[in-house]
Design brief:
The complex is a heterotrimer of chains A (249), B (654) and C (267).
Chain A: E1 2-3, H1 8-22, E2 29-30, H2 33-42, E3 47-50, H3 56-60, E4 64-79, E5 86-87, H4 89-97, E6 114-118, H5 123-133, E7 143-145, H6 148-157, E8 161-166, E9 179-181, E10 183-184, H7 191-195, E11 202-210, H8 215-224, H9 230-235, E12 239-240, H10 243-248
Parallel strand pairs in A: 1-2, 1-3, 5-10, 6-7, 6-8
Antiparallel strand pairs in A: 3-11, 4-8, 4-9, 4-11, 4-12
Chain B: H1 2-8, H2 18-21, H3 33-80, E1 85-86, E2 91-92, H4 95-126, H5 129-142, H6 147-166, H7 173-197, H8 201-209, H9 214-225, H10 227-243, H11 246-251, H12 269-276, H13 282-309, H14 313-319, H15 321-346, H16 351-372, H17 379-412, H18 418-422, E3 425-426, E4 431-432, H19 435-466, H20 471-485, H21 488-502, H22 509-534, H23 537-545, H24 550-579, H25 582-585, H26 605-615, H27 619-653
Antiparallel strand pairs in B: 1-2, 3-4
Helix pairs in contact in B: 3-13, 3-19, 3-20, 3-21, 4-7, 4-10, 4-17, 5-7, 6-7, 6-26, 7-10, 8-9, 10-13, 12-13, 13-20, 13-21, 17-27, 19-22, 19-24, 20-22, 21-22, 22-24, 23-24, 24-27, 26-27
Chain C: E1 3-4, E2 13-24, E3 27-38, E4 42-46, H1 53-60, E5 70-78, E6 81-82, H2 90-96, E7 97-100, H3 111-121, H4 127-140, H5 144-147, H6 160-172, E8 178-182, H7 190-203, E9 208-212, H8 216-222, E10 225-230, E11 239-245, H9 246-251, H10 256-262
Parallel strand pairs in C: 1-11, 4-9, 4-10, 7-8, 8-9
Antiparallel strand pairs in C: 2-3, 2-5, 5-6, 10-11
Chain lengths: 249, 654, 267
């Protein structure tokens, strides 16, 4: 299997457990969502992991079957000293397009906004782009960092910085650096809000297979969405698919 | 007695072809056909090996260019060199990235070159021997530290510091300058020291005996004499800076724009390739190959410049010819006058007059010396100040390098444990050990070495023993130098396109090893050639004198005596390979896996460190990996030094 | 210990040495050297390899200061000034005591720049002054005719003998009072040796010349006075054995060891 680096930790741990259960080794490569989907289409991988839904072009192949494995809210984070507590989707878009450049325009201090973006390989960026930006272009002068931890670390140390990371990583057990998650459209980011669909910047994580999953792939996917894996998924910073939703599928 | 026996049957000539040796027949025999064929075949084989480097360079260029054609034909050369880099909206202009590369390289040179030259001068000319030995060993070893560790240092230490200092994010040109400067200082220092040491002691003594101070000797004699070597060192440092990928990628902030100021994010050709390669497709990927072509041309151009300036001096004298000719004309006119005068004076050859002439001459020099000499700023003060400056640069450089070692050591040591070394990574954040990454690193390196060494050694044999100096050899040398200078990310691109995709080896040990072998090839070739050339001629003559064929001389006499130095070269190349990141990033894959067959993929330590540093969550493991990586490379380098010491002692003893 | 001839007494003393000792680190290399070197005469130092003659020569312009861990004891005076006196600047000393080395060592610069090096150090900047000095010095080193039309040629491009004469011209350009020559002819061809020896004759009336040589014929040919150094036992310091008028030492050496050496019995 190949694909999103966002989903990779989940997929890897599932692969370890899967090997323990069945003795079958599943190879996991993190290449980015698009490359993963391409690999499944051309047959080099059995399962694509993705943090975004299929594009129209990918849907039009008609070959890919979607399995939702988790939900994820994307938290907009700022430095803890920043007095701003809420942004609207429009403001957020303007910030990332480079149109709003100072915190005072958002009622904060007179401080330039230092925008931190993710790299294009990132599923989080893809999702952020789809949900927040729409057709608006990202400001190319924003810093592009290739990892969640880095974004978090940089924002935690820089007063004027703004970034976005998976909700699950806002409070991390591994580092003492603190960041503050902003409310978007006045909705505080929380698991409940994401699950309820109230928090606007949220997304699903997917597995894609060519045709209905079968054989080993099917067993593996079953393991990933099982209750056994729920805690792992939480550890990785995501929210497992709730029982109701699973039932609904 | 024993001696006679030996002469009858020299042990290394046992397999002399009886047809040619014909020692007991009275008539001289014609060269036997089989010997001739054998020698010719061997020579052809060596030539073929030597041509591998040429082929590789041509192939890299052609293949990368081929892969870049779609973007060039689709958007045209003009928009390819345009300002707008936005692959997701179909803009593939690389100008901002090119400018970024230039800015980053230029700044690194401005900071690094004075430090490196100052440090080299301090170590060779000023510092006492013991201190100089210790520091230059450290500098040598640091030249081998993998770039990903410098990048890690920049990310964790320099970036936050510069962020506080400038009020920005800390990502940008300034951080990259410092990181790259620190990185190229050991390279330039080592090469400059070589250049300074190659100047004979007598030249310095002459200067001192003329009453020059130390500073005057350094500034007026030593540095000018070493000029070519120093320029070479700087150009090579420049090549290293412009081709550097990982260290830059980790600290520039990756914004593909012309930066507003030195502390705002920026991007370079190399870092953008590394960042985008994983997920790019179609025209976007083609554009990355196009950037690879640009990088290739830049580095091949730099190699060309180095070769031009290192040419024999005659060529250089010509350039300033016009100025000199004018001056010479003046002198010629004067000279004839004096010659006449002298001839007249000498003609009677009577001593008193000659003495008078000389007395006159002596008075004239004294008068001129006196009239010209002006009281200057105290020479001793200048001397003391300048020596102080050199000491300071030496201290700064040493200090920074020590800081890096301490940084890795202090943070990494607490993590060290058997579990860490022999354990497997566990959980989402790769807690636990790093065993599979160690195995992957060593596996790929050994494989690369096995592929590279035979070719490199035989190629070197051809260049040193068989080739006639001429165009072909020159071309092979140029190709080898170019291959050595190909930025590692370009090698990675090429490896991905050829081995992973075209040959279908996939992301595997084999693909990565082949790419690494190409990278190691020029290093091993060069050191082997030097080693072979260092074997004294009389040893060869001795063997020829006993009637050995060329191949027998090479295989029985030359290669064994050159072996320790060849081994040194191989070990050094291994050190480089273990520390390499950009080459393996897209040829080996990144899956944590214990490789068994060459077709397995894996994740080497360098990439593990890079990913951990990027995720920024499990820093403990990152420090531990960095420390282990550095220790391994230091071990290889120390081993190489030990080997070369041993061989030096051996030859010295003889 | 040392056998002295009375000869130098008739001369003006250029360099006065009394009970001079020298150490490389803990190795005592020279001991108890006492001699007066005649001004504006040629003095040769002879002796087998390792007898300390070159070391002693390098003490006169303090070149040994450049080697770590060296130490001296005793008196050495140039025109009555203590060479090793407190506060004496070795750099300044070396401007008055020029040196020619065994291996010709021109700077890798043009002939002109080689000769102009010393004057420039002393602050001569005017082009016409420098031109004059360069020309006179080269003429005095008997090199002018050979190189006058190629002053911009690299000094290293000259032949070995020419290089050595270039080095002499370089020293002459700063008009030293003393000229030290450390085996100046051992690395050049016989024709050039002749030229260098002629040059020494010509220079002697105006500067004190001290030459270290392995070649006894040369010592006999060129020098007015001769000093014989010897290290009798390995590991022990070398010293001055006999010193006097060259011709007298050759015709009737007083010390047995001197006789052994000049008759070729050892060394």
């Amino acid at each position: 299997m190949a694909g999103s680096t966002t989903v990779m930790p989940i997929a890897e741990i599932a692969a370890e457990q899967f090997a323990e259960h069945t003795g079958i080794h599943v190879l996991v490569s993190g290449l980015g969502s698009s490359a993963g989907i391409e690999s499944v289409l051309n047959g080099t991988a059995d399962i694509a992991t993705s943090s975004r839904d299929l594009t129209e072009a990918e849907k039009s192949t008609g070959e890919l079957v979607t399995t939702e494995i988790a939900t994820d809210g994307i938290a907009v984070i700022v430095n803890t000293q920043n007095p701003v507590a809420n942004v609207t989707m429009d403001q957020l878009r303007a910030i990332y397009a480079g149109q709003i450049t100072n915190w005072k325009e958002l009622g904060g201090e007179d401080l330039p906004i230092l925008v931190v973006n993710r790299d294009e390989a990132s599923g989080t960026r893809e999702a952020f782009k789809t949900i927040v930006m729409g057709d608006t272009r990202f400001d190319p002068a924003a810093a592009v960092l290739p990892g969640t931890g880095q974004v978090r670390d940089v924002v935690s140390r820089t007063p004027g910085a703004i970034g976005y990371i998976s909700l699950g990583f806002v409070d991390s057990a591994f580092t003492s650096a603190k960041v503050k998650a902003l409310a978007v459209n006045s909705v505080e980011p929380s698991e409940a809000a994401v699950e309820a669909g109230a928090y606007p910047v949220s997304r699903y994580l997917y597995f894609f297979t060519k045709g209905e999953p079968s054989g080993t792939a099917k067993e593996y996917i079953a393991l990933v969405v099982s209750d056994e894996m729920a805690q792992t998924i939480r550890d990785a910073g995501y929210i497992p698919i709730s029982a109701e939703r699973k039932g609904g599928e | 007695m024993a001696k006679e026996k030996k002469l009858q049957k020299p042990p290394h000539l046992e397999d002399i072809d009886p047809n040619t040796s014909g020692a007991h027949s009275r008539q001289l025999q014609l060269v036997s056909r089989s010997t001739m064929i054998k020698e010719r075949a061997l020579e052809a084989l060596f030539l073929a090996c030597a041509c591998v480097a040429v082929l590789a360079v041509l192939l890299i260029f052609a293949f990368t260019l081929y892969k870049a054609l779609p973007v060039l034909s689709d958007i045209g050369l003009l928009s390819f060199f345009g300002m707008d880099w936005a692959p997701s909206s179909g803009h593939y202009g690389i100008m901002a990235l090119l400018v970024g590369s230039v800015i980053v390289t230029a700044g690194a040179l401005v900071i690094g070159v004075p430090l490196a030259i100052g440090c080299a001068v301090y170590l060779t000319e000023i510092a006492n021997k013991r201190l100089s030995n210790i520091v230059s060993t450290a500098v040598d070893l640091l030249a081998g530290v993998p770039s990903v560790i410098y990048g890690f240092f920049g990310l964790v230490i320099l970036r936050p510091w510069l962020a506080d200092l400038t009020g920005g994010l800390g990502f940008g040109a300034l951080t990259a300058w410092l990181v790259l400067a620190i990185m190229i200082v050991p390279t330039i220092t080592t090469l400059t020291m070589d250049a300074l040491r190659s100047i004979p002691m007598g030249v310095r003594e002459a200067s001192y005996s003329m009453g020059a101070t130390k500073w005057q000797t350094i500034y007026k004699v030593v540095l000018p004499a070493a000029k070519l070597g120093i320029v070479n060192a700087v150009v090579l440092g420049m090549g290293r800076a412009i081709g550097e990928t990982m260290a830059v990628l980790m600290v520039v902030g990756n914004a593909p724009v012309i930066p507003e100021n030195i502390s705002s994010p920026i991007s370079t050709l190399t870092s953008q390739i590394a960042l985008d390669m994983g997920y790019s497709s179609g025209l976007h990927r083609s554009a990355l190959f196009g950037m690879g072509v640009v990088l290739f041309i830049i580095s091949a151009g730099l190699v060309g410049i180095v070769r031009l300036i290192s040419r024999p001096r005659e060529a250089k004298v010509d350039t300033a010819k016009a100025v000199k000719e004018r001056a010479e004309k003046n002198y010629r006119a004067k000279a004839t006058d004096y010659e006449l005068a002298e001839d007249v004076a000498k003609a009677p050859s009577n001593l008193p007059e000659l003495e008078k002439e000389q007395e006159h001459s002596r008075q004239r020099i004294k008068r001129l010396l006196a009239s010209g000499a002006k009281p200057k700023v105290s020479k001793n003060a200048t001397n003391a100040t300048m020596l102080g400056v050199f000491r300071a640069t030496g201290a700064v450089t040493t200090g920074v390098l020590v800081l890096i070692i301490l940084f890795v050591l202090v943070n990494g040591l607490p993590v060290m444990s058997l579990d860490f070394i022999f354990g497997w990574p566990q959980g989402v954040n790769a807690e636990g050990g790093i065993f599979p990454t160690i195995v992957s690193s060593l596996y790929v390196t050994v494989l690369a070495m096995l592929i590279c060494t035979p070719i490199a050694v035989l190629a070197a044999v051809y260049l040193a023993e068989y080739a006639k100096q001429g165009r072909l050899v020159n071309f092979i040398r140029y190709a080898t130098d170019t291959l050595a200078s190909v930025p590692s990310i370009v090698m990675g691109l090429f490896g991905f396109a050829l081995f992973v995709e075209a040959f279908g080896f996939g992301l595997s040990m084999l693909s990565a090893a082949l790419a690494l072998a190409l990278m190691m090839l020029p290093i091993v070739m060069r050191t082997t050639e030097e080693a072979i050339r260092a074997v004294p001629r009389y040893i060869r003559w001795g063997a020829y004198g006993l009637g050995a064929t060329k191949w027998q001389v090479v295989s029985r006499v030359v290669l064994p005596s050159a072996f320790p130095r060849i081994a040194t070269g191989i070990v050094l190349a291994i050190g480089r390979a273990v520390g390499e990141t950009a080459v393996v990033l897209y040829t080996m894959g990144q899956a944590i896996n214990l490789p068994i067959t060459p077709m397995d993929s894996g994740r080497p330590m360098t990439i593990h460190l890079y990913l951990l540093a990027n995720d920024g969550i499990n820093m403990q493991a990152a420090y531990g990996t960095a420390l282990l990586l550095m220790l391994m490379i230091l071990a290889f380098n120390l081993f190489a030094r030990y080997l070369s010491r041993k061989s030096a002692k051996k030859t010295g003893g003889k | 210990m040392t056998e002295y001839r009375d000869a130098p007494k008739n001369e003006k003393t250029g360099i006065h040495v009394a009970d001079f000792n020298f150490w490389y680190g803990s190795f005592h290399a020279l001991t108890g050297v006492t001699m007066d070197i005649a001004q504006n005469k040629i003095t040769s130092f002879i002796g087998p390899s390792g007898c300390g003659k070159s070391t002693f020569l390098r003490c006169i312009n303090r070149m040994n200061d450049l080697i770590e861990g060296t130490r001296t004891q005793g008196t050495m005076e140039l025109d009555g000034n203590d060479i090793y006196g407190p506060g004496v600047d070795p750099v300044d000393l070396r401007r008055r005591v020029g040196m020619i080395f065994q291996q010709p060592n021109p700077f890798p610069k043009s002939i002109y720049d080689n000769v102009a090096f010393g004057p420039r150090l002393q602050g001569v900047t005017s082009k016409s002054d420098l031109d004059g000095i360069v020309e006179e010095s080269l003429k005095r080193a008997n090199l002018w005719k050979e190189v006058s039309n190629q002053l911009n040629k690299n000094g290293l491009a000259l032949s070995g003998g020419q290089q050595q004469r270039l080095c002499i011209a370089r020293v002459l350009a700063v008009q030293p009072d003393v000229l030290l020559m450390d085996e100046p002819c051992s690395a050049i061809d016989p024709t050039s040796v002749q030229k260098v020896e002629d040059l020494m004759y010509e220079l002697a009336p105006e500067m004190t010349i001290i030459i270290v040589t392995h070649n006894m014929q040369q010592a006999a040919r060129v020098s007015d006075y001769m000093a014989f150094f010897l290290q009798e036992h390995a590991g022990e310091p070398a010293t001055l054995i006999e010193y006097g008028v060259t011709s007298e030492i050759f015709s009737s050496p007083r010390d047995q060891r001197t006789e052994d050496y000049i008759t070729g019995r050892f060394g």
